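Service request form, structural biology core

Requester: graduate student, group of Dr. S.
Request type: structure prediction, single chain
Budget code: on file
Notes: please return the result as structure tokens.

Sequence provided:
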Amino acid sequence: MLKAAAALSFLAAAALAGCASRGPESVSSSGATAPSGARIVTQAIPYRPGTGVVQSVSRAPDTREPLSVLAIRMDDGYMQYIDTASNVPVGSRVQLTPDHKIMIR
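Core staff response, request fulfilled:
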């Protein structure tokens, strides 16, 4: 009985090891992964100073410090997504300054 249990646990471990991934094949400087031969292109989104209203607040993914992502609808209709450690409630009217500061108005 003991031999059967040992053999069964060995088979279960082998089956689980077969499900494990090999890991990333290539890694960019930003930490993103892609299959071999694939090219990773980063998208630069311009920061636009101005005034707007916070539409939503969510937690930033995969950050080492607690950051929030503010979805801000600017007065001209443009949507900006800003990462911040500040607590800015939904519905707040904000001004984004040219030096990358958020001011609640």
